[in-house]
């Protein structure tokens, strides 16, 4: 099947799109070696440098892989999703399982690494959560997430902080939905306050395992607003 010449500008994007169509359409199956740059350039009606940039874009999407001295081979039939895209499609329960691993370890590290400024920030975040208990579910969830973000920050691990920030949008949506469906705050607007205060005290006291256990117990409780939904 002939590729057909592309129109001027933006040539790289058009060339990459045309090549992607051939791969996703099965014209070049996984494992196939692509034609050389000269051949592709001639069929697309562009220069070799344009083809080279287009192939680089496809490699970045996980579709092809250049092999030293051997050429460019098809690696996958569909482009790889980036992390934010995958998270947006993830089930809330899957996110909670990751949250458990991240926050339990973060609490442990926070207790070991917290500074006086971190402890002050934690008490302030706890007070913010208490104040938000008088507001609607969305505001309360935002304050709750801000509290947990403060614990993550006290761990002083930028990778944990970035990971938590990435799945926060999915987490927020799941928590709001949980509160709406269960009405957990109807009789206790500041639900799980005791556990949150216990976490601050454990971190402030440098009790790493105690902090980890507080978070583990909280997230394993399906009846807490920050627990894993059934």
Structure in words:
It is built from 10 helices and 2 strands. The protein has 230 residues and is mainly alpha-helical. The protein starts with 10 loop residues before the first helix and ends in a 10-residue tail after the last helix. Mean pLDDT is 87; it is low at 222-230. Helix 5 (92-113) packs parallel to helix 9 and helix 7 (137-154) runs antiparallel to helix 8 (158-182). It has helices at 11-24, 37-44, 48-60, 83-89, 92-113, 116-132, 137-154, 158-182, 193-204, 208-220, and strands spanning 64-67, 71-74. Residues 9-77 form the HTH gntR-type domain. This is FCD domain-containing protein. It holds the Pfam family FCD.
Could you spell the SSE succession in H and E letters? HHHEEHHHHHHH
Q: Major β-sheet, in short?
A: 2 strands, antiparallel
Low-confidence stretches: 222-230
Q: Mean pLDDT, rounded to whole units?
A: 87
Task: State the distance separating the first and last CA atoms.
Answer: 51 Å
Determine the structural class based on helices, strands and strand pairing. Answer: mainly alpha
Q: What's the gyration radius in Å?
A: 25 Å
Hey, roughly how much beta strand do the residues contain?
under 5%
- Count helical runs: 10
Helix fraction, binned, reads 55-70%
List the strand order in the largest sheet.
Answer: 1-2
* Total beta-strand segments: 2
Indicate the overall shape: elongated
Based on the model shown, name its key terms.
230 residues, mainly alpha, 2 strands, transcription, WH_DNA-bd_sf, TF_FadR/GntR_C, Tscrpt_reg_HTH_GntR, DNA-binding
